[in-house]
Please model this.
Amino acid sequence: MNAATSTVSDPYYMAATAQGTTASGPRQAAIRVAAYYHAEHRGFAPGHELDDWLLAEREIDAVQAARGTGR
Model:
């Protein structure tokens, strides 16, 4: 997926934009992957992109906190 062309139709980018977290980096990449796997687990049913993103954020932040790496 090309980052320049995929952001407009990427529901996880749109979820990030809704949260004001569009800066690219390792944290967002980890959240994006986790959110994708949550969507996959649901069978990619539409309408839950933001929920997937927020759950993934909480999970990644918890892992980082446990490792002591913070945000």
